[in-house]
Design brief:
This protein is mostly helical. The chain has 33 helices and four strands. The protein starts with a helix and ends in a 26-residue tail after the last helix.
């Protein structure tokens, strides 16, 4: 019995609607007796938000950080309320799209100091290029980064190892829990608990009327309402007021004022930038450290960059994150004393170059080298080439694992003989280093890799030279990550070596997009986004068909630019398509870029733009099938998802007929995609069930019959609910008091 069916039965017991859960969803008997049996039975309890619902503002006011919430609660003598929400989950969608936007719900939450936790991002970035906050369209008064950042902190303290949504946890001023409500089958049980808790508490001290507070006083308040008022005053004020507010933020060291400082640092007033920079250099809060990292990503003079890194050095004991940032930026400015420079490689090898690395060719070459070694056992070059051939076959992906292990052992033995005969030191050491690495002797491999790279000519072009450069970069990255996890200091020279090795690999004839990905991700993970962007652009010039590089390119464009910018996500891909040497796979990537853009528009509450982007995505995917026929399977998959997503948008707009036709087209295009979750965490089947529930409510049996038939034709496994729709019972702790 499915979790959805069990939930339906509980709803039936609560509401008296017995017919909701008589038969399993999708069973032949159910379809024959009840045309609405495939509809989601929870839709009556948790109605899906409409386009008009999502267009309304969120009326519940959330504090930006847990620290702010604690201080506001202390000052106002109010309890805290933690709300947890999840994209795509039907009850969470109802809360976010309907309840949080109703005045009566906001009034119930107002006696609490509220925070919202959700791990889903609804905007690509949290600030625009001028430092202005980009509010989450789902929750209103916080950025996506804020409701994402707060979640693991609250999970550790209050979730008791359970990530469940929707959920409401009330917390007392001493940070002890009052109640925890989840798996509630109606909103009344949640709202009654909220009311009862407040009714049993003494009235808090009256708030100071906002009109009685000056802007400077409000600038000293952690409450989100005061922060918003201060930032709006800064944006709309004259030069005198703006300067006064920034100076207040600089001297107000007891309160985190990074949002106000950010506005000045990314604005165009040079004097305010100077004052804000002074404050930032003296700040020490976790958010100030992140602001320093953000400013370091921008173009600036060497003197300012050095001052910011020096400010981080002052805070190096505050966290391992700070220590790592310092080492990264100092390391990027250094020059490796180990990795050779000045390499000049030939053009990237063509397809015929790869023929020599096919398994049969590697086996044949080993046989030749073995014969030569038997004939000339004392010749160092012959013995070395035999060892290299053994290594090549040992590491070939088509070689049996057990046989590969034996060949690694033989390669290690033979290369020792070659070295004793006086063979090339760097080539011998390269074989020994790679043997040690793949045999698990990591420390020995590290030492040998360092020795090899120090001896290696700058223009070495062999596969082994690429492999040992890659090995050096990997052992350095692993050492840095291990030190960072252990919160230990690490030499900045390690980062310099990583950067230099990957710069060579980016040009090396045997370099791959995997090297670019590793380099980019490593730099990005340590906050060096400017350097990472340059690595990515150079990599895409060489590896135009790399899905991993395109994914990172999309993420970067979304993080740095608005969708409607002339150099926004879709515009960039449209420009790439117009280039004469555009890769045949580029229409597919342009289609996926439009698909992603459509979801961004949906999260921002712009259905018109999202529909246009979905249409462009479908057109690009169809063009990609023509230019690159091998992409048909994945193109059809995303066309089906785009059609179903478009159905969801038209459904929310109230166009049931259009929604049904798009869903039918989706199931025809790629039935296997029916249960696949898109970026909104919604599958075509989930949308179809919501639409069916609405069709039953408005008495449209004609449309319902068509949609029921399409669902009935799908593989029954595709009709199962997603894993996150667990079979939960109301929490036993929902009414527990201290």
């Amino acid at each position: 019995m499915t979790a959805a069916l069990d939930i339906a039965r509980r709803i039936a017991r609560l509401t008296g609607v017995v017919g909701l859960a008589v038969l399993p969803l999708g069973s032949p008997a159910a379809s024959a007796q009840d045309p609405g049996s495939l509809a989601d039975p929870r839709a009556a309890m948790w109605p899906a938000p409409s386009e008009d619902d999502w267009a309304r503002p969120c009326l519940v006011t959330w504090q930006r950080t847990w620290e702010d919430a604690l201080e506001v609660a202390r000052r106002s003598d109010r309890p805290l309320l933690i709300c947890v929400n999840m994209d795509g989950e039907i009850a969470s969608e109802h809360y976010a799209g309907i309840r949080y936007r109703q005045a009566e719900t906001a009034a119930l939450y107002r006696p609490y100091v509220t925070v919202i936790a959700s791990v889903y991002r609804h905007t690509p970035r949290d600030h625009d290029r001028w430092g202005r906050r980009i509010l989450c369209p789902r929750f209103g008064s916080v950025t996506c980064g804020e409701h994402i950042t707060i979640e693991p902190l609250l999970y550790e303290r209050y979730f008791e190892g359970k990530r469940i949504a929707p959920r409401h946890i009330a917390v007392e001023l001493d940070r002890t829990e009052i109640y925890d409500v989840y798996y509630a089958f109606d909103t009344d049980s949640v709202f009654d608990t909220l009311r009862e808790t407040i009714a049993g508490r003494p009235a808090p001290a009256p708030e100071v009327p906002l009109g009685d507070m000056s802007l400077v006083e409000r600038a000293s308040s952690p409450d989100v309402t005061d922060r918003i008022a201060t930032e709006r005053a800064f944006a709309g004020g004259d030069a005198i007021l703006r300067r006064r507010l920034i100076e207040t933020a600089v001297v107000n060291t007891d309160l985190d004022e990074t949002d106000l400082l950010r506005l000045a640092l990314f604005g165009d007033d040079l004097e305010l930038k100077r004052i804000a920079m002074r404050g930032l250099l003296e700040a020490s809060s976790p958010r100030a450290i992140e602001l320093i990292a953000d400013v370091l990503r921008t173009s600036m003079g060497a003197e300012d960059r050095d001052a910011l890194v020096s400010a981080l050095e002052r805070l190096v004991d505050a966290s391992g994150r700070v220590r790592d940032l310092v080492a990264v930026y100092r390391g990027l400015d250094g020059k490796s004393t180990l990795v050779p420079t000045g390499a000049s490689y030939p053009a990237v090898p063509g397809p015929e170059h790869g023929l020599e690395y096919r398994h049969h060719a590697v086996v044949g070459r080993l046989e030749v080298r073995a014969s030569e070694q038997i004939a000339r056992p004392a010749d160092p070059l012959t013995v070395l080439e035999f060892a290299e051939s053994l290594l090549a076959l040992a590491l070939h992906p088509d070689t049996d694992t057990a046989l590969g292990a034996l060949m690694l052992r033989d390669a290690r033995r033979v290369v020792a003989e070659a070295e004793a005969l006086g063979a090339s030191p760097w080539r011998s050491t390269a074989v020994a280093a790679l043997c040690a690495w793949y045999e698990g002797a990591r420390e020995q491999a590290r030492a040998l890799a360092e020795e090899t790279v120090a001896l290696m000519p700058a223009d070495a072009q062999s596969w082994n030279s690429m492999a040992v450069l890659s090995l050096l970069a990997e052992v350095r990255r692993l050492a840095i990550r291990d030190a960072a996890r252990a919160r230990e200091a690490w030499p900045r020279e390690w980062l310099t070596d990583v950067h230099a090795a990957h710069d060579l690999l980016a040009q090396h004839p045997h370099g791959t997009d995997a090297h670019v990905v590793a380099h980019h991700d490593f730099l990005l993970s340590f906050g060096a986004s400017g350097h990472a962007a340059r690595v990515l652009e150079r990599g895409l010039e060489r590896f135009q068909d790399s899905s991993e590089l395109h994914r990172r390119f999309r993420d970067r464009l979304l993080a740095e630019r608005r969708l409607d910018d002339v150099d926004g996500l879709e515009a960039v891909y449209e420009g790439l398509l117009r280039e004469e040497d555009a890769h045949p796979s580029l229409p597919w990537y342009a289609g996926y870029a439009s698909f992603v853009a459509a979801e961004v528009y949906r999260r921002a509450g712009d259905p018109t733009e999202s529909l246009g982007a979905y249409a462009r995505a479908i057109a690009h995917f169809q063009a990609g099938i023509v230019s690159a026929p091998a992409s048909r399977d994945s193109a059809d998959h995303y066309i089906a998802l785009a059609l179903a997503a478009r159905a969801r948008v038209t459904f929310e707009h109230g166009d049931l007929e259009g929604a049904v036709w798009d869903l039918l087209a989706s199931f025809r295009c790629k039935p296997e995609a029916a249960a696949f979750l898109d970026g909104m965490n919604i599958s075509p089947v989930a949308t179809a069930r919501i639409v069916l529930a609405r069709l039953a409510a408005v008495d449209r049996p004609d449309l319902a019959a068509s949609l029921e038939a399409a669902l009935g034709a799908l593989d029954p496994a595709l009709l199962l609910p997603p894993e996150f729709e667990s079979d939960g019972a109301p929490s036993l702790r929902s009414r527990r008091r201290r």
